[in-house]
Design a protein that fits this description.
Blueprint: H1 15-30, H2 34-61, H3 68-91, H4 98-121, H5 127-153
Helix pairs in contact: 2-3, 2-4, 3-4, 3-5, 4-5
């Protein structure tokens, strides 16, 4: 050896660095969990926003005497904000497929809300009574998905 740097690194010397690179690469690949994982993450984000929004609204009602119409309107706003946050979370960095992911998030979010409401109130779900909520979730999710996808493309 003449003291010059070798043009290659032997396998035994690069083992730990190679292992670390492989871990980082596989973590990046597994982060999203695919489209289904992204949709489920979006539904969970939306549900979390709803729980927080309803709790804050319930605390505000202690000091504010709101009418039934105002309560219904604020509940709709909480649902829209939750669906928007869920769709944004489900899209992540994706620039395609926003409408379909948005529709799935909106549908699953509203279905989860209907099931939770029925369990808390002790009612059996009446599909005809909740079709409007499901339709609103589908429409809002799809619309938010289209808007967010279009914003990312520009």
């Amino acid at each position: 050896m003449d003291g010059k740097a070798q043009p290659f690194v032997q396998k035994a010397d690069r083992g730990l660095d190679s292992f670390r690179r492989s871990l980082r690469r596989s973590a990046r690949r597994g982060r999203g969990g695919g489209a289904l994982g992204a949709v489920l993450r979006g539904v969970l984000v939306g549900a979390s926003i709803t729980v927080i929004g309803v709790a804050v609204f319930a605390l505000a009602l202690n000091w504010w005497d709101a009418s039934d119409r105002a309560i219904a309107a604020i509940n709709q706003v909480v649902k829209f904000v939750s669906i928007l946050a869920g769709v944004a979370s489900a899209l992540g960095g994706q620039a395609r497929g926003g409408t379909l992911r948005g529709v799935c998030v909106g549908l699953l979010y509203m279905a989860l809300g209907i099931v939770c409401y029925c369990l808390m109130m002790g009612q059996s779900p009446q599909l005809t009574g909740y079709l409007a909520d499901l339709g609103m979730g589908i429409a809002a999710g799809g619309l938010f998905g289209m808007i967010l996808t279009a914003r990312r493309e520009t």
